[in-house]
Amino acid sequence: DVQLVESGGGSVQAGGSLRLSCAFDAYTPANVRMAWFRQAPGKEREGVASLASDGSSIYANSLKGRFSISKDSSKNALYLQMNSLKPEDTSMYYCAADTSCGGGFRWWGQGTQVTVSS
Length: 118
What we know:
Elements: E1 4-7, E2 10-13, E3 18-24, E4 33-39, E5 46-51, E6 57-59, E7 67-72, E8 77-82, E9 91-98, E10 107-108, E11 112-117
Parallel strand pairs: 2-11
Antiparallel strand pairs: 1-3, 3-8, 4-5, 4-9, 5-6, 7-8, 9-10, 9-11
């Protein structure tokens, strides 16, 4: 299994920025797909951004231009840069990973809370 540990969440005012980090094991396969999801209380989990093993990325349409996903394999870390944050971005953010070609993700972190106040 791949272990994932998120960090970087916190409280910020609307318009502010945060960078989330997801630390993964050094032996994580190079063909791993990784992604960020979020889930607010009472709402379904939604995909935020994903990063394929070839470096291509996909974003939720509503978040394009504000969020950016990146990976630093030398540091075994996945990042989510979040700018121009809005109160509706308040959620628990999760890092996920998988090595299969399907759309699902087998490995998940414990999550990090982001709270945006107006």
